[in-house]
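Worked problem 6 (solution included).
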Amino acid sequence: VQLQAYGGGLVQPGGSLRLSCAASGSIFRINVMGWYRQPPGKQRELVATITSGGRTNYAEDVKGRFTISRDNAKNAVYLEMNSLEPEDTAVYYCKADLFWGQGTLVTVSS
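Solution. The predicted structure is:
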């Protein structure tokens, strides 16, 4: 299984970005998809997850600002990020069950 993430970049505080990630390869059914991030000098942490049935889970510091969604037919997961803060600067990784994608860098700076 391969995961390809897109959508990172540089954005000003208060701005928005949308990350996308699609899984390909030998996939029967993906149960949980999610996004994690690793800020500079820190450990990787959970951002949000979503089950195949649509149940979501968010880290406390992104609740109300980030929205995770998925398209089961495309084996894709998305992360809509609004009201971005400098503290959201990190490499963002997508995950599908036990498989990790490569990271995409999000930088929030004026």
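Discussion: The two ends are 37 Å apart (CA to CA).
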